[in-house]
Design the sequence.
């Protein structure tokens, strides 16, 4: 699967992914009004507004980008109707030829991680029929439980040609509380990086592994170390834009081949119409056009810096 | 919320929780046949079999136990129909007066953790109406991202009178890879235990905090340390039974007041009819009676040991 992602990145000259993380406060009033007029003030209406919002952004940007990253929490907060919308947006993005990174951050003991891996990347058999429940292309995975919590995901990557990104150094302010603390001479996140290489060696797909890593744009020094420790690992880089990561900081996350990293922006793209420099040029009715402009600007910014 | 759980534990003399972690291989053929006859070989049929299985076990055991712990991964693997069944079992257990610990192991950066906390413990507003999406009483939380990934859950515990159990030392074989490694003089899990106390101080409910911890029965030495480091923290103890934890090992997890821990068994209870000593006395049609016997035996075993 990683080779497919790399092909799309190279073809579109776009080492970026758009995070489809809707929050009701970003969604224009006219979409919320349409939804509540049809479905009342219900979770179904909220989910319908989210879906309409995301589809419009996908329609306006899919030719520019290789991949999207829906954050399942933002759908899960609307209960079952939200999760139905999540599945619909996964399928819609596939119809548009996009690779879907399910930002699910799952991870548990072995038998339970296997169920999560089946849910998001694998297939399940009922009698003589086989189903792919959510069917994203990649999922994000939490490493706190160690190898037996990650291995079931790797096995399913190999079986179904899928990929994962394991949390190594996250973009949030308190990520250093545990991840940066010295553990037998090196920070915890470096130990996790070593394990990512070990896990990834069992799922190579060309020069890179289907087992990738998450390292936040907000920590460029750790990005440089992570890049060095994991030469064959693709790095998913959140935290650019709204969280404070700058393009000039991103070079460290890429290999000399110009590959090895894919940079995510969520709020900076999907809520562009509410932010400078777009809000004066685009009103709420043209939110998706603002997102397209923001993707173009992000591509110029990142391709100029790396 | 923790005081409510403690009351139920004391009233029923039962420091135990039954893990409702269905796997199609545990579910008797007659339930699967009923479901596929009605709904075909579909995810809906699998979910219906899971729901019928779990409801029968709840009916047979609810008077003996204070709480259940459905593992959401086991439902998520059946996609949307599975998650609908998850929500139905949460509601059904509430109707039976049981406390529901959603074993969801969520955790992300701050704004995303807030969405997970809303999904599972909180409420969301659409227009003028407010909904509680999944509405479990407790959720399990992964600490890898540090304070800003956990704090939104604590805030919602305080707002909605709910609780969480944070992963400290998990029950799986490879949990020591990171959790036991020395970090500035002490294993990582001890640092997490310290943070659990810090987070929990903001959500006290009587002698104990709404912020609990997960420590596996399979690691009694770490259980003893965790007990000492977190005197006001309730410990959810998975790993008893099928994973190898023994009653004699459990004493270390309890405080001198006889409180402070709640022991989970999943497969040992729900699949009792397939295991010694129950399989000779109960056939597949009487699987729920076997589960009731297994709960009684577990209570005797644990109450005898502590």
Sequence:
């Amino acid at each position: 699967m990683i080779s497919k992602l790399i092909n799309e990145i190279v073809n579109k000259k776009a080492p970026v992914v758009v995070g489809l993380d809707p929050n009701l406060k970003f969604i224009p009033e006219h979409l919320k009004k349409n939804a509540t007029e049809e479905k009342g003030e219900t979770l179904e209406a909220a989910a319908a507004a989210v879906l309409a919002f995301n589809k419009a952004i996908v329609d306006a940007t899919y030719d520019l980008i290789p991949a999207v990253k829906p954050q399942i929490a933002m759908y899960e907060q609307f209960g079952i109707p939200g999760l139905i919308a999540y599945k619909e947006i996964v399928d819609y993005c596939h119809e548009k030829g996009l690779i879907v990174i399910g930002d699910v951050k799952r991870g548990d003991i072995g038998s339970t991680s296997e169920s999560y891996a089946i849910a998001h990347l694998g297939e399940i058999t009922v009698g003589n029929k086989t189903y792919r429940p959510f069917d994203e292309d990649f999922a994000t995975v939490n490493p706190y439980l160690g190898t037996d919590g990650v291995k079931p995901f790797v096995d399913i990557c190999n079986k179904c040609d899928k990929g994962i990104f394991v949390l190594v150094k996250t973009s949030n302010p308190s990520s250093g509380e545990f991840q940066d603390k010295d553990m037998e001479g090196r920070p915890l996140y470096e130990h996790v990086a070593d394990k990512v290489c070990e896990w990834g060696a069992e799922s190579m797909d060309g020069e890179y592994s289907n087992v990738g890593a998450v390292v936040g744009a907000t920590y460029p020094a750790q990005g440089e170390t992570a890049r060095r420790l994991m030469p064959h690992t693709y790095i998913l880089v959140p935290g650019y834009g709204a969280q404070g990561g700058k393009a000039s900081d991103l070079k460290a996350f890429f290999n000399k081949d110009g590959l090895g990293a894919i940079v995510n922006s969520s709020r900076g793209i999907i809520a562009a119409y509410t932010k400078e420099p777009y809000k004066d040029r685009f009103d709420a009715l043209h939110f998706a056009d603002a997102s397209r402009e923001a993707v173009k600007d992000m591509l110029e910014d990142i391709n100029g810096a790396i």
The mean pLDDT of chain B is 96. Chain B touches chain A through 71 residues (CB under 8 Å).
